[in-house]
Amino acid sequence: MGTLTILLKHSSTYKSLTKCTNIFLLFPLSKKQHSIYTLHFHQRPLCHGCYLSMNGCRKGHSREPVGTIETQTLEPVATTSMALYSLKMAISKMKSEPQFRSSSGIVRLQVSIEEEEVEAIDWLHSQNHLLLPRCFFSGREHNSFDSNGRSLVSVAGVGSAVFFCQPHPFSYWDWVSIRRFLSESCPLIRAYGAIRFDAKAKLSVEWLPFGSFYFMIPQVEFNELEGGSMLTTTIAWDNTISWSWEDAINALQDTLSKVSASIVRFPKQAPPTLILSSHDIPSKIDWDIAVNRALEMIKKNNSLLTKVVLARSTRVVPTTNIDPLTWLACLTVESENAYQFLLQPPDAPAFIGNTPEQLFHRKWLHITSEALAGTRARGVSMALDRQIELDLLTSPKDDIEFTIVRDTIRRKLEGVCEKVVIKPKKMIRKLPRIQHLFAQLAGRLRSEEDEFEVLSSLHPSPAVCGFPTEEAQLLIAKTEVFDRGMYAGPVGWFGDGESEFAVGIRSALVEKDHGVLIYAGTGIVEGSNPYLEWDELELKTSQFTKLLKLDLPLRQKVDCK
């Protein structure tokens, strides 16, 4: 990856850069009347256009909330195309008759769609022609509501009113930078994104556009509600980051001019595809060696290590490009008790997933988290399914793994909560293809400021890292020869009164012209068997591999280091 720094007059920044090519990600770094933009580009020709926005994470800028935070609700309309027209007219009027005098702010305009039924994923797929950052998030339980009391089902967004991305580990001040743009009075202004599993690990080329963390407040957002939908736009500006109101509204108008008003329901099935190659890292042989080494470490008398989660990356290259939204839509079929997500920086790979595991959900001071460990396939009959369930519930090996996860989360929550309740303490959570041991933990935070402490202490959890954390991370760093990126990291959103994060497992990174990287991991404890653990990896990746025809017409499957 190369870096190019250019100096532009502030007034002409937008017009100049919208004509550029091969620009991948832009970090505004300037102050006063000039703007310095660091343009990151890949040696591979991933970028075919350019996109300009404000990076809200910047050293030295104000830590105070932005001056204006507001939501404006327009008159309801019948269709999505009418909603888009209504928003364009409102933005044009807002531009000609400026309402805001503050040097920084964020304003959301929203319009309800009353007659046309549209799914958020269909709306996002209809914007596939845009080379803009995009996101999608569908919660497992629909606990968020709009101003009319309708629960929020899914959110899809394109463009970023403001994004937050840096190469350094996500810090308290980065959290504060995001919180500046959030308000109790505007609960649906949210920053969607993800954080790397290990911010200290070296970034591989496929994960470079994401930085150590990547969050975005979408410019244009489609909210799928129970009983309706909303189309919204968001404008954000901050003169201290050299991104003025004029810059923001010009950028929004440019995005709106490219958004499609024609929404087509696309087939929720993957087209038949042949696989050219499939590479596992580590190979089956190297996996056996790694697991046995981990077991030796766990059995040592002087070792504190009791569990480590080792992962595998599988690169699959099919004969045709994979559409990440088509894959995500196929995964939605298995969405019971799971979160679906997509995160994609400008013209970059798409990180998608269908994860059953909640890291935490915060509603004001109330917080919940979950322990999930131990994996079995579902049975082909009710009797066999019950037999497998009993085997999982009574397995000593799985009980050790599960107890480590549950008790570690409990201790971490007790550090920031007045009281922690575990209910149920141990049960089976059944998913369409697999089942796990499960417990739910709930507590009450002493302060909303403790949210960052909750995030930083719960991640990485023993379910995706091991125990003790430090020893497990060290062994993972020594053993794994690929970059996990945001696999197994926190994925979700920050709001003011409410935030929710899942654990980015059951996930994949889809790269145009380079296939897909499918990730899976498994917990190693005393009693683990490397052959059975490999089978568990295969089971966990099956929700992706089943979308492909596993024939290799040109070459055989290859295990590689």
Please tally the helical runs, counting DSSP H or I stretches of 4 or more residues: 12
Structural class: alpha+beta
Strand content: 25-35%
Biggest β-sheet strands, sense, barrel: 22 strands, mixed
Mean pLDDT: 87
Dominant shape: globular
Proportion of helical residues: 25-40%
End-to-end separation? 23 Å
Describe the protein's architecture and organization:
- The protein is α+β, with helices and mostly antiparallel strands and 561 residues long.
- Helix content is 25%, strand content 33%.
- The protein contains 12 helices and 25 strands.
- The strands form 2 sheets. It has a 22-stranded mixed sheet that branches. Strands 1-3-2 form a 3-stranded antiparallel sheet, with no helix packed on it.
- The longest helix is centred in the last third of the chain and has 19 residues, at 396-414.
- It is globular.
- The model is unreliable at 1-50 and 551-561 (pLDDT under 50).
